[in-house]
Amino acid sequence: MKSQKYIFLQALVLTVIVFNIGIFFGYQLESSRVDRINDWYLQSDIELLDQKIQRDAFSFLDFDCELLIQENIDFADRIYIEAQKIDKFEKANRMGDEIIMQHKRYDLLRTLFWINSIEIKNKCNSDYHNVVYFYDYDEPSIGQKSEQKFFANLLFELKQEMGREIMLIPIAGDNDLPSIRLLLEIYGITELPAILIDEKIVLTDIEKREDIEKYLD
To answer: Which strands, in side-by-side order, build the sheet including 201-203?
Structure first.
């Protein structure tokens, strides 16, 4: 009888220890997640302000075009890499308000960058391509998920091959942001996913990479 009580007591103590360890590591994981989100908030705020200042400065200051284009290309590469990090983070974590808000901030950042990229291209007569990829972020259907994965893979391949000849700008088209809704309306984009090339060509029906490539010569 004493032996059974001793075994029960051991099991109880072990359960309590394991439970508390689980709570501790869960707290550490959540704390780390919040810290990372806060870091993203700070970084995106700085980059949003930087892009806003650049855009305002275009109207009354003269810039060296080589420097402008180089800075723009470098920034495009940074936000492209950042988009991949956020995508991996979102897949590994539950979708909470913090993640959704951060995604909206980056969508605004990419939109502002896109507008700046158009202005730089026109001002400096550059030959890079603006490739804006609008996708369904909130609740894509099964068909949309499959199509978006296909689109994303093709664009990734093209970006890897063409490098700095492409400004690849992924933006969620359903993030309930008025500025993005307005841009979708201006370019006549009514379904997602969609790819906008150089503010002229809208692609929604793609079967192979050549369907995109032919507009990037």
So the answer is: 166-172, 129-135, 194-197, 201-203
Take residue 144 and report the two structure tokens written for it: 């949309």
Distance (Å, rounded) from C-alpha 9 to C-alpha 143? 54
Residues with pLDDT less than 50, the chain: 2, 24-28
Model confidence pTM above 0.85 = no
Beta strands in 96-188 (DSSP E): 129-135, 166-172
Q: Could you identify the residue written with the tokens 């995106």? A: 44
Amino acid at 166: I
> How do residues 162-178 score in pLDDT, each as one tens digit?
888 899 999 999 988 89
Query: Is 201 within 8 Å of 215 (Cβ atoms)?
Result: yes
Q: What CA–CA distance (Å, rounded) separates 202 from 183?
A: 13
The number of C-alpha atoms within 13 Å of 184 and in the hemisphere containing its C-beta is 21
DSSP assignment letter at 206: -
Rounded to whole angstroms, the Cα distance separating 43 from 28 reads 22
Inter-CA distances, 114 with 7, 96, 166, Å: 66, 27, 12
User: Which domains, ranges and CATH numbers included, belong to the chain?
Assistant: 33-213 (3.40.30.10)
For strands 194-197 and 201-203, give the pairing.
Answer: antiparallel
Contacts of residue 155, Cβ cutoff 8 Å, sequence gap at least 6: 131, 133, 168, 195, 212
